[in-house]
Amino acid sequence: MWGHKQREGKEKYYIQTVEFGEIYFYTASMLDWIPLLRADEFKQIIIDSLVHLVKKEKIRVYGFVIMPNHIHLIWENVTINGKEKPHASFMKFTGHRFLEELRKTNNEMLSKFKVDRNSRDHQFWQRNALPIRLYDRKILEQKLDYIHLNPLQAHWNLVSDPNDYYYSSCSFYEHGDNHFSWLTHYMDVM
């Protein structure tokens, strides 16, 4: 979604094209890899935003995992959300909610997201998220396996069985659990 390039000593940001009706593997990281998403209330903000956009039929989510400092999604932008693409709405909404929550509960953590920019005082997401278009089912399945196994990586060691990690679509695929009933099974569309 976001990329950046240097021009005359100043960093400029630009939005990469994300097409409607295409499925993407998407990774977004917290600013400076700060583990804001370690706390469940911040993970819930991610879920709330995804659910809202799914219910409005702006996106379809095929897979996800919420890690302590980043997220992985396999999703599709379906239609415009007001004046912006749904992925932009997602990033903006979650950022606003993070700000609200931290102002109420944790000023020390909030200070870690302080930036000196004309457009904002705080930034939560790194501006280098890159969507990767998934052209076929085999690649989608590889990415789905990757995100579902992410909580098992030694440096995270969040669970010993990927189905036990609540903030993931793994048990949806492996056991048919529908506690995330807003997910779409990829085989329904591919």
Q: What can you tell me about this protein's structure?
A:
The protein has 190 residues and is α+β, with helices and mostly antiparallel strands. The chain has a single domain (2-136), classed as Transposase IS200-like (Alpha-Beta Plaits, 2-Layer Sandwich). 32% of the residues lie in helices and 24% in strands. It has five helices and eight strands; from the N terminus they run βββαββααβββαα. The chain has helices at residues 40-55, 86-105, 107-111, 137-149, 170-175, and strands spanning 2-7, 10-15, 23-29, 59-66, 70-77, 114-117, 120-122, 130-133. The chain has a four-stranded antiparallel beta sheet with strand order 4-5-3-8, sandwiched between helices. Strand 1 (2-7) and strand 2 (10-15) form a beta hairpin. Helix 1 packs antiparallel against helix 2 (86-105). The longest helix is centred in the middle third of the chain and has 20 residues, at 86-105. It is globular, with a radius of gyration of 17 Å.
